[in-house]
Structures are given as C-alpha cells and as structure tokens.
Amino acid sequence: MPIAQDMKRWSSLFTSSFLLIAANAFGAEEAKVSGLKFTGSPSCASTSCHGGGTSHNESLIYERKDPHAVSFGILGKGTSLRMAESLGIKGDIAADSRCNVCHAPMQGVSATHLVKDLKPDKGVGCESCHGPAENWLRFHTRPDVNFQQIVATGMRDLNDLYGRANTCVACHLNLDEEIRKAGHPELYFELDGQCIAQPRHYKDVRPSLGPRSWLTGQAAALREVSWKLATKPDEHLVPRWKALVWLLQKTELGVQELPQTGDFSAMQSAADGLARKAALKLWTPEVVEKQLKEYVSLYAEFTDAKADRVVLRRRAEVLVPAIDRLWKEHKKTAQTDAAQFESIFNTLHLLAMEHEDFEPAKFSGMLGKLQLAFAGRAEPTSPVRKPDKVK
Ligand code: HEC
Ligand code: HEC
Ligand code: HEC
Fold first, then answer.
1. What is the CA(316)–ligand 1 centre distance, in A?
2. pLDDT tens digit string along 76-87?
C-alpha cells in the first residue's frame, strides 16, 4: 500500500481511538482498536539505532536505569504474592491482566498483535509509550519523512503534553478498588516531576515546560478520577476528586473551564478540555509568580474546623507538588531567598506525607511560614531533613 494511503487509514483509526476520553497506554486494548502490531523493544536497540553512542543511546539508558524496563520484576516479590493471594490469582501473576496491564503490558497482548515470532517485552517497553512500531519502524528514520507523517502511522506524539499526560496517567493513577484493598500502594500522578524522575533518554527544554506539564497532568488526573467515579462509586476516591477540583479551580484556566458544581461526567469532559488547553498554554514569569503566590497564601483553608480532615489531607497532597513545580520555574528568575523557602517547603512536604496522621493545623502553620518566606519576611529557620521521595 502506498505510504500516503496507508497513513490516511491509520490516522483515521487514531483519531477515533483518541476520542475515547479515558487515557490508555499502548497495550492490548489499544492494539485491538488500531490493529497495529508491536515489534518489541529489542527492535529499537541495535547500535546503529537507539543502542549506540551518546546521541542515540535511548535503549541503553532504558535498559540500565529505567524502572520501566524491570517493572515486571516486582510481580514475583513478596508484596505481590500476598496481593495475588488475597485476589485469588493463581499461577503466574504476570499473566493476570489485573497486574500486567501496568507492570507487563506486552504480556497481555495476543499473538495477532505482535510481529511474527516476537517474544513480548517483559516490562513497560518502548512501544508502551511510543506506540506500536510495525508501520513506522522502517521508515521513521528516512530524511524525507516528517514527524507528523510518522505519527500518522502509529507513533504516539509524546511531544504533545496532552498525549504525554494521557500515556503516563493510564498507569500512574487509577487503581481498581479491589487491588487497592489487596494492599497495592496508592498511586499519585504529577506529570512534570515524574517525567523528570524517569531516567532521561530525551531532551525537552521548552519554555515554561514545568508549569505547563504540571497543569496538563493534574487536569488529566482530574479527568481520570472523574471517569472512574462516573463509572463506579468509590468513597475512597471522592476526597481525592474534591482536592483536584479545589486545586484546579484556583488556576486561571481552571476557572474558565471547570464547572462550579457538576457531576462526575460533566467534570470529566471539562477536565479533558482543560488538559488540552493547558498543554498549549505558555506561562510568563509573572503568571508563574501570581499562581505561586495564590497557592502559598491558602493557609486559612486548612484551619476550617468544620472541613473534612480527609479532604484537607488530599488537598495538601496535591498542593505541595503544585508549589514544588511552580517554585522550580519561579526560582529561575526570582529574587526570593531560595535556601529559606526550600527549607520551609521541605518541612511542608513532610507534613503532607503523613497520610492518616495528617494534621491540618500544623500544615496550615507551615504554609503560613512559606508565604512569609515567599514575601521575603520569614524568620530564619533551622535546616530540616530532606524528604526521601518527591511524590
Ligand atoms: C494502574 C496500573 C497498575 C496496576 C493495575 C497494578 N500496578 Fe502495581 N504499581 C503500579 C505503579 C505505577 C507502581 C509504582 C508506584 C511508585 O513507585 O510510585 C506500582 C508498584 C507496585 C508494587 C511496589 C510497591 C512498593 O512498595 O514499592 C507492587 C508490589 C505492585 N505494584 C504489585 C502489583 C500487583 C501484584 C498488581 C496486580 C494485582 C498490580 N501491582 C497492579 C501500577 C499498577
Ligand atoms: C515511560 C514512557 C517511555 C518509555 C518506556 C520510552 N520512552 Fe522514549 N520518550 C518518552 C517521552 C515522554 C519522550 C519525549 C518525547 C518528545 O518530547 O518528543 C521520549 C522521547 C524519545 C526519543 C526522542 C529523543 C529526542 O530527544 O528527540 C527517542 C528516540 C526515544 N524516546 C526512544 C525510546 C526507546 C528506544 C525506548 C525503549 C528502549 C523508549 N524511548 C522508551 C517516553 C518513553
Ligand atoms: C504501561 C504502564 C506505564 C506507563 C505507560 C508509564 N509507566 Fe511509569 N511505571 C509503571 C510501573 C508499573 C512502574 C513501577 C516499576 C517498578 O517500580 O517496578 C513505573 C514507574 C515509574 C517511575 C518510578 C517510580 C515513581 O513513580 O517515581 C517513574 C518516574 C515513572 N514510572 C514515570 C513515568 C512517566 C513520566 C510516564 C509517561 C511518559 C510513564 N511512567 C508511563 C508503569 C507505566
């Protein structure tokens, strides 16, 4: 089939599959919708392709450092065995779709969606993020072919922050209630920080990328949680949903896009619209500063004695990463005393991670201090321990 005709066919298929609002990584379902085939991570890894020297070493970085390359490994460990037992999973855990959709997505793909004789990747492979490669593997390096043409044949456009957020959020946020109850740790999603935490095999130095990526990711998260709640009631998830709505309604785009009240389905489509807009919105240093100022001034919202403590805890969980991502951007141009701001911020972060033991009043006090530091009016503080892990 001539490339142009072929591309038209695939692009129409892709538009239709992207209309499904809920996010998906490339796995069994997507391959079924698109009819595309996977070629496996080793097909990208030859030394003349992505397994070579410093400028084309993506496969080496992935194999040596990226947790996605070994994401199936955890399924053989004690925690997984205990979870499997309580879920009634017998035999190979990696063969069970309840776990392999995220930890070993290629294991759930039928042979008809794999190129001939392919042994499927064990972990989250290149194609789980970049899309099934059968139709573009050979021609994506040709100098006469542009990126949009490659995307039209099935490569996912991860440069588009909306598409990127959809890819990551599919595995990094929603868990079925039964899996959570079986002891799976809770999942948190924040696109900017998680992109930076993934061992980098690409450069992305676009202006104001941090805030853009953060807002796009949180909007995608709200859409996903809304979708989940619209599908099935889950009391545990409602406070997380409320917290995301609260957070996003304090942004300029959020005020425009999100309904003040609304059911989960209405919020789902509004949040999708917000994510699409946020992906394109550039942030000037003034807008970053304004947003940060707004977030650090919210201490009074954590002292309301009538407020639900669980909701307050969930607010803190989303507010801290928001401040973190905005601060990282603001710091590039700011006059604020960074050492002092960061030392207070680290304590705030620890307080937000207390989960069940979360104390709103303490958090509120620390947020108040952060506001003073932001305004350049804080008392000097003693150094604090750095948080172990940024969530
Ligand atoms: C929606 C995607 C998803 C599903 C479904 C899922 N996991 Fe996970 N799981 C993750 C992610 C993402 C992490 C990494 C979390 C982190 O490090 O922040 C993880 C982490 C884990 C961990 C590590 C916990 C730790 O303390 O480090 C174990 C064990 C685990 N998963 C087992 C399972 C088992 C067993 C199943 C099936 C019953 C399962 N997972 C289903 C996405 C998923
Ligand atoms: C967890 C998701 C994920 C996995 C797994 C993954 N990538 Fe990527 N990759 C990305 C993202 C996100 C980008 C940034 C895309 C952009 O901005 O254009 C990227 C960018 C790239 C780029 C473009 C580099 C550049 O600077 O232009 C190459 C090449 C690449 N990946 C190859 C690979 C290969 C080969 C593998 C498997 C060994 C792989 N990726 C696995 C997410 C992933
Ligand atoms: C097909 C599912 C899947 C997709 C898509 C995916 N991840 Fe993951 N990711 C996982 C699983 C499972 C783990 C846990 C691996 C482990 O610890 O064994 C993980 C771990 C990680 C970790 C290390 C643990 C943590 O949470 O800090 C980072 C960072 C990460 N992913 C970032 C990303 C980013 C960024 C994207 C999108 C560009 C992405 N992931 C897409 C499944 C996925």
1. 23
2. 999 999 999 999
